Amino acid sequence: MSFSLTPEQKQTTFWLALWLALAGLLYLLGPVLTPFIAAAILAYGLNGGVDRLCAWRIARFTMPRALAVVLVMLLAGAVIGALALTVVPVLQKEVPMLVGQIPAFLAKIDSVLAPRLAQYGIDLSLDSTRIRGLVTQQLAAGDWTSVLASARVGGSALLGWAATVFLVPVLLFYLLLDWHRMLAQVQGAIPRRWVVQATSMAREVNVLLAQYLRGQLLVMFVLAVYYSAALALAGFDVALPVGILTGLLVFIPYLGFGLGLALALIAAVLQFPGLSGLVYVAAIYGAGQVIEGFFLTPRLVGERIGLNPLAVIFALLAFGQLFGFAGVLLALPASAVLMVAFRHLRHHYLRSTFYNA
């Protein structure tokens, strides 16, 4: 029994195989895609502002798109700079104070642990002089090959982050400048028999993503108010900047929460005697994670893009596993796209003879 493909089937097989190979290549290049994904998300969010500036006419003067892109990027940079100026003074104040408190903190821990460890025959002293001597001894007798290898790994990671920070604005500029032309090229590459359906799906995706962005902004605002108010009620002097930073950076998974938690822990060590400050921070940030993960994000973001809480949690874990940090950034927007595709697929399935026969 011979099996042969028609010319149209051969073309379909070829293009499907090519698209699958491209998808596999993107999967392998997942770690490299982080600046491109970040720039694309920013471009999608900022493109509306660029379009409004280009449509704004003053005395028959129409603003060139390049100038509008520069102005919008400068405004976004000013917002990011304002956040940095909120954090940097806190760091400049807290870090030197923390360094000065380390000997007293070690002495306090030593006074609690040393007697209990001595009962088991363990002689441990955490005074700063002894720790400095142990570090010096280990460096003198250590394996410098492993030390240099670790330094190289750390240097490579640092260079990678620096390249990402530099690349994102450059990529963002060109994406905003050619946004509509690139969309037209993508639309022009769609097979003509599918262009109507694909355009309709793209409009649905655009509506869902706009709702996603509005929901994410609402989550950021609520968390900024929560962390600021909770830290202020606990008596923290840096409640406002730390709370605002933690809330506003929540759109970058782990980074906003981790940085806010670190600053709050430093403030707790410096400001409160004993462990009361650390207990306050643990309670506030633990409750904040529960509120964000189980209530705010699933309800305000997940429901806006048609995903239930279980699907939101699964999307974050699955995309993070597949693409790392870039996947976490892309999880919910990509889920919105998949949700639209699944909705259309379900519609065709319910109308098919396979289902109704």
From TrEMBL:
Subcellular location: Membrane
Lyase recorded as keyword: no
Bilayer topology annotation: Multi-pass membrane protein
Transmembrane segments: 12-30, 66-91, 158-177, 217-236, 242-270, 277-297, 309-342
UniProt KW Membrane keyword: yes
InterPro entries in alphabetical order: AI-2E-like
Pfam families in the record: AI-2E_transport
Keywords assigned by UniProt, alphabetized: Membrane, Transmembrane, Transmembrane helix
Superkingdom field: Bacteria
Membership in a protein family: Belongs to the autoinducer-2 exporter (AI-2E) (TC 2.A.86) family.
Protein name per UniProt: AI-2E family transporter
Organism: Massilia solisilvae
